[in-house]
Amino acid sequence: MGEIAALGAATAWASGFVLLRAVPDRYNILNLNALRMSGPALVYVIGLVLIGWLPRIRELELTNYVALAATCVTGIAVADLLMIRGMRLIGVGRAYALGGFAPLFTTLFAWLLLDEVINEFVILGAVLVIAGCLLVMRRNQKEKGEASLGSRDYWVAVGLVIFATMIWGIDFVLLSVGVGEAHPIVANSFRLPVAALFSTALAWGITGEVVPRGIVLKHAWLAVLAGIVGISVGSFLLLTSLQMIGAARGAAISAVSPVITMILAAIFFRERMNALAIVGVFVAVIGVIFVSVS
């Protein structure tokens, strides 16, 4: 079940980023992120009240509170913003494909900080997922000729996104510590409102507004829906997975999300899938299987 939850989280994240990419580039990413976080925060707070679990917030200990609050900075305020920027520069599929690096960093951090046991299947699976995403990332000669970014700018954008995946690696470990033994709904009911407040304050402090000036209602709803699908659903499934199979395995399996994103981007945005990208899909899927049977 933990593996299924991780794959579900990967699908939810992919869908959320594709929905967000449907919003035009003219809006500031800080404002879009604030809108994106508002939906998940409301969903979890209202849900916690409706099911009568509000007192269970007290089940979290100080360590849980600190770790969950830290993920609001690492995962949402930094890594997600860098990824959104990367998507605008080099495309949804290719930018998010680099998210496949995350399990490499998560595996390292989980081994160093959480003493998780890492066997050869987990390592091999993570390497295959990363290799698959690297194949997805590579441009052929035709794409280089048609691209709006030059080679130097392209690799700068790639470096930006890789840095985001490194931060995601830390984020997975913090999430694993933050959820502890608590129910994922309870953990998210604290984490997501804090993340929404932080994102709102960041947008207000830098741009002077929360909702982008002149935003079309359709685009605002797309940003909110992207958060509900990608974060509300995705984070619940991720925390469930981390509890059941640990940070390293959960991160490695959920790293198939870039492959799903690439397929959705090809369908909805007509982003090309070259031969290397198709091979990368199969390599990444094989990596998921290795991790699942470890």
Distance between the termini: 14 Å
Strand content: under 5%
Q: Give the total of domains.
A: 1
The succession of helices and strands, N to C, reads: HHHHHHHHHHHH
> What's the rounded overall pLDDT mean?
81
- Spans of 5+ residues with little confidence (pLDDT < 50)? none
Specify the helix fraction band: over 70%
Give the overall shape. globular
What is the topology?
Blueprint: H1 2-21, H2 29-50, H3 62-90, H4 92-97, H5 102-113, H6 120-137, H7 141-146, H8 151-179, H9 184-207, H10 217-254, H11 257-268, H12 275-292
Helix pairs in contact: 1-10, 1-11, 2-9, 2-10, 3-8, 3-9, 5-6, 5-8, 5-10, 6-10, 6-12, 8-10, 9-10, 10-12
Q: How is this structure best described in words?
A:
Helices cover 80% and strands 0% of the residues. It is an all-alpha fold and 294 residues long. The protein has one domain. α2 runs antiparallel to α9, α3 packs antiparallel against α8 and α6 runs antiparallel to α12. The two termini are 14 Å apart.
Please sum up the structure shown.
This protein has 294 residues and is an all-alpha fold. 80% of the residues lie in helices and 0% in strands.
Could you list some keywords that capture this structure?
294 residues, mainly alpha
